[in-house]
């Protein structure tokens, strides 16, 4: 199980602040019948629930934990009665805030916001419902492990919104790269902008186009429009788009740049959350996926949500409730009800309670949905075999750290424990060269945690004072690469502590004194991410974002339209198109699909 250590110094530190309590679900009584039930209170489920309820469906969300944040807020916008069922006492799936140590509030799993679709943000009026985002500028800081020259500190690379400043920073390593960087950013923005039509619509309905009735063929033909719009936006850049989604990210970066710190820093976005290396095909798309978002109309920006990422889930939940969605936590669904006619009829909770509905949407991973929740007798052996083949490999171990002193980096010293601009960044450690990333990846592929892991450190409390007691901070260490099994065996608490010690030793080299500042740490290896958050394999995207699991084949060709083999059962989580990240599009697309299907009944 996950390891959480809390020191006596930590207990003293929190006497400065009051306790922050987690949010609870409303006191609405659970009904026996709804139009729509959503399993899992993650952000996609909440988005789905909101839109179904808005569309006229009485909807309920059921979350197994005590916090919200999974995939249920767009269903309540379509006129059906919808419920979201979450088995914890928190809503949010991976987008949750939890007070692991008294006074310290963490974004325990996901930790930054960018990919949330702007139309969802506006349509659900999330700002009115309490969503506040702290913008980061600069946004990336890569310190070097090297000796300073003539008493100067080691070099570092800092990137932000101002291109001229970025060029000055890059110029410390290569003037040629500094000149090329603005063109590279503009190039990526053009490609990312062209993808947007594909995000907000289901994939092309190929079966409907080639073999449907005349009426269905006309409807299916409309699903081609997002591809046409994407193609028109790309224009002459279509070959570049094809290259970046299929090529290793290092092929792309080597075409543009020479300096290792810049290439390694950019390459991290090509492997973040993915068990792949910068030299593997498909890593280019992972980078594109991570630069196609925006925050407060700033393209490609990433921000900190006030109160942690649970603030996103709570804002979506608040919007959903305002439309009439019933949201329940600590409601653990044990099985999806399938009638004698083969249609979904509702769900059964672990306590035996049956809740009936016209449709069921699952924000769980495809594996959990079809292997754990759906009666196996209702599915064909061929389909079950296909579900077994979905790749959920994860390289991530997330470490949440409570500290009583701000890290002081050798590459950018800050006297008096005062935050510098770099403290608000994604701080890239062990990213001096791509070779370091490659070595870390190869170790994990050989079933060993990386001896020199890639580390993305964030300190959101630098901008958000609600997260920690005065003078203290919360730190997120998103680390790669770690395997699900260590040389064929399960992780032990000793393994977790040993890996965390390795990570802390590396942080210490960049920021001496870091280890002494630690008052508590929460270590989540891939099996912990699976067990706590329902992320099969520990994969933060609900399934690898590899080329064989995108668009028409996400998560399987037979499931790419959100419909399952069981009539009335749909997927609405990140395992569906367009994939992972706190985006909301899977929930939005699934809700529209449900509403359209019910209109045809």
Question: What does this protein look like?
Answer:
There is one protein chain. The chain has 601 residues and is an alpha/beta fold. 35% of the residues lie in helices and 22% in strands. The strands form 5 sheets. An 8-stranded mixed sheet has the order 1-22-18-21-20-19-9-10, with helices on both faces. β16 (344-349) and β17 (354-362) form a beta hairpin. α5 runs antiparallel to α8 and α10 runs antiparallel to α11. It starts with a strand and ends with a helix.
Q: What Rg is obtained from the alpha carbons, in whole angstroms?
A: 23 Å
Query: What does the overall shape look like?
Result: globular
Low-confidence stretches: 11-25, 70-89
Provide a count of the helices.
20
Tally of DSSP β-strands: 23
Biggest sheet details = 8 strands, mixed
Distance between the termini: 46 Å
- Based on secondary structure, the structural category is alpha/beta
Q: What is the percentage of strand-forming residues? A: 15-25%
Q: Helix coverage percent of residues?
A: 25-40%
Please tell me the overall pLDDT: 89
Strand order of the largest sheet: 1-22-18-21-20-19-9-10
């Amino acid at each position: 199980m996950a390891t959480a250590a809390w020191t006596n110094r930590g207990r003293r530190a929190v006497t400065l602040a009051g306790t922050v309590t987690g949010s609870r679900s409303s006191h609405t009584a659970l009904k026996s019948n709804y139009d729509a039930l959503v399993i899992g209170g993650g952000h996609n489920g909440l988005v789905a629930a909101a839109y179904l309820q808005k569309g006229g469906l009485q909807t309920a969300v059921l979350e197994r934990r005590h916090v919200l944040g999974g995939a249920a807020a767009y269903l309540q916008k379509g006129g059906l009665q919808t419920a979201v069922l979450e088995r914890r006492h928190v809503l949010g799936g991976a987008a949750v805030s939890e007070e692991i140590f008294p006074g310290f509030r963490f974004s325990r799993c996901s930790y930054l916001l960018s990919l949330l679709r702007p139309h969802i943000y506006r349509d659900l009026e999330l700002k009115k419902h309490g969503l506040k985002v702290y913008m980061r500028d600069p946004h990336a800081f890569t310190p070097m492990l090297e000796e300073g020259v003539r008493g100067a500190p080691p070099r570092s690379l800092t990137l932000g919104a101002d291109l001229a400043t970025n060029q000055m920073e890059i110029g410390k390593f290569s003037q040629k790269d500094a000149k090329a960087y603005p063109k590279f950013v503009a190039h990526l923005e053009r490609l990312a902008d062209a993808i947007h039509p594909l995000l907000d619509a289901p994939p092309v309905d190929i079966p409907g186009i080639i073999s449907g009735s005349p009426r269905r063929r006309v409807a299916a033909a409309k699903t081609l429009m997002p591809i046409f719009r994407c193609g028109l936006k790309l224009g002459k850049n279509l070959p570049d788009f094809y290259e970046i989604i299929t090529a290793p990210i290092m092929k792309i970066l080597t075409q543009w740049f020479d300096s290792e710190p810049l290439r390694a820093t950019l390459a991290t976005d090509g492997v973040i959350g993915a068990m792949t290396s910068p030299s593997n095909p498909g890593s280019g798309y992972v980078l594109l996926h991570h630069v196609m978002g925006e925050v407060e109309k700033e393209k490609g920006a990433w921000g900190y949500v006030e109160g942690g990422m649970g603030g996103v889930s709570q804002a979506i939940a608040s919007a959903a409730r305002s439309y009439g969605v019933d949201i329940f936590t600590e409601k653990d669904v044990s099985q999806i009800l399938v009638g004698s006619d083969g249609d979904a009829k509702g769900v059964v909770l672990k306590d035996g309670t049956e809740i009936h509905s016209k449709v069921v949407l699952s924000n769980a991973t495809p594996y959990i949905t079809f292997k754990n929740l759906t009666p196996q007798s209702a599915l064909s052996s061929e389909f079950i075999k296909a579900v077994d083949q979905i790749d959920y490999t994860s390289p991530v171990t997330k470490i949440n750290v409570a500290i009583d002193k701000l890290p002081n980096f050798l590459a950018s010293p800050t006297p008096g424990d005062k935050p510098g601009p770099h403290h608000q960044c994604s701080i890239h450690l062990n990213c001096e060269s791509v070779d370091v990333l490659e070595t870390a990846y190869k170790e994990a592929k050989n079933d060993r945690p990386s001896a020199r892991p890639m580390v993305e450190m964030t300190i959101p409390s630098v901008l958000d004072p609600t997260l920690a007691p005065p003078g203290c901070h919360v730190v997120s260490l998103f680390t790669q690469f770690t395997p699900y099994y260590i040389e064929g065996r399960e992780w032990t608490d000793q393994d977790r502590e040993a890996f965390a010690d390795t990570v802390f030793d590396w942080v210490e080299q960049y920021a001496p004194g870091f280890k002494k500042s630690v008052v508590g740490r929460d270590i989540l290896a891939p099996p912990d991410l699976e067990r706590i958050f329902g992320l099969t394999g520990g994969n933060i995207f609900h399934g690898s974002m590899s080329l064989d699991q995108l668009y028409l084949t996400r998560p399987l060709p037979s499931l790419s339209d959100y419909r399952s083999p069981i009539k009335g059962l749909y997927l609405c989580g990140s395992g569906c198109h367009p994939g992972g990240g706190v985006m909301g599009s899977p929930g939005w697309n699934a809700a529209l699909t449900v509403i359209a299907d019910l209109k045809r009944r």
